[in-house]
Amino acid sequence: MKEKLFYEKGLPYLTLNDFPGKLIVIEGPDCSGRSTHISMLKNWLEAKGHAVLDTGLKRSTLVGNVISEAKKGNILGKTTLSLLYCTDFADQLENKIIPALSAGYIVLADRYIFTLMARDIVRGASKEWLKKLFGFALIPDMIFYLNLDPEILLHRSFAKYGRLDYWESGMDTHLSGDMFESFKKYHSLLKLEYEEMAKEYDFVNINGKDNVDKVQAQIRKRISEYLGV
User: Fold this and answer.
1) pLDDT 10s digits, 32-82
2) Which DSSP string corresponds to 114-141?
3) Buried b vs exposed e over 17-41: b needs ≥16 C-beta within 10 Å?
4) What is the predicted pLDDT for the residue at 1?
5) Mean pLDDT over the full length of the chain
6) Are 68 and 58 in contact, with CB atoms under 8 Å apart?
7) Rounded CA separation 120/116 (Å)
8) What is the average per-residue pLDDT within 113-134?
9) Is 61 exposed, middle or buried (0-12, 13-18, 19+ CB in 10 A)?
10) 106-110 sheet: strands from edge to edge
11) Domain spans in the chain, listed from the N-terminal domain onward
């Protein structure tokens, strides 16, 4: 079994041993296809006999609903937003992810700390502060990044929702008063941050504009090689 390590000091009140489970992360912006691929991977891995837990942002029973409610007025401060998402992640790490890994599950994370950090950096947060803030995070076994251009994301967002979202368009960052222009600028900046993180955190870079079956096949091949199955 591989010893699980934190990025920095970890959760000091938890005594951790090696975990038999695996933590696999799929990163990427909204409408990049993450949730679809997590669902497909879960079915595939379970058919192979693995116990699987899937998790993602805003799924904490502690503050998941609080974040959704707080964002409704479009007036939430960037530091408060960052700390709420950090709390959501910490609660899930302690009460879902670590117990599942301890029990031998494969945990599929629909985004992890990297999306949170990329968003915060674009909103002006210090990289060093964020690394300390999220230093309690476990280092995943594999991190996939679905790489897509902002123009494609724009079209997919309209196809999925029929509109643009205030926060996903980065309107709070005041990049532009026009939501379309803000969306493209915001996601261009996010893409740059993801690409920087890809080097530092060893992402597996996947071309997200390929069709679903091709992307899924690439991800499954990498996972099969890693698990030795």
Assistant:
1) 999 999 999 999 999 999 999 999 988 888 887 888 787 777 667 888 888
2) HHHHHHHHHTT--HHHHHHHTTTSBPPS
3) eebebbbbbbbbbbbbbbeebbebb
4) 42
5) 90
6) yes
7) 6
8) 94
9) exposed
10) 52-56, 106-110, 22-27, 142-147, 204-207
11) 22-227
Angstrom distances, CA of residue 95 to CA of 89, 114, 141: 10, 20, 19
Alpha helices in the chain (DSSP H): 34-47, 64-70, 78-92, 98-102, 113-122, 127-133, 150-161, 179-201, 212-227
What does the block give as tokens for 53? Answer: 């837990």
Q: What is the CA radius of gyration of the chain?
A: 17
Q: Quick count: other Cβ atoms within 10 Å of Cβ 229?
A: 10
Q: Which CATH class is domain 22-227?
A: alpha beta
Least confident of 118-122, 136-140, 156-160, 186-190: 156-160
The pair of structure tokens assigned to 76 is: 């939430």
d(CA 137, CA 2): 16
Is residue 194 a contact partner of residue 114, using CB atoms and an 8 Å limit? yes
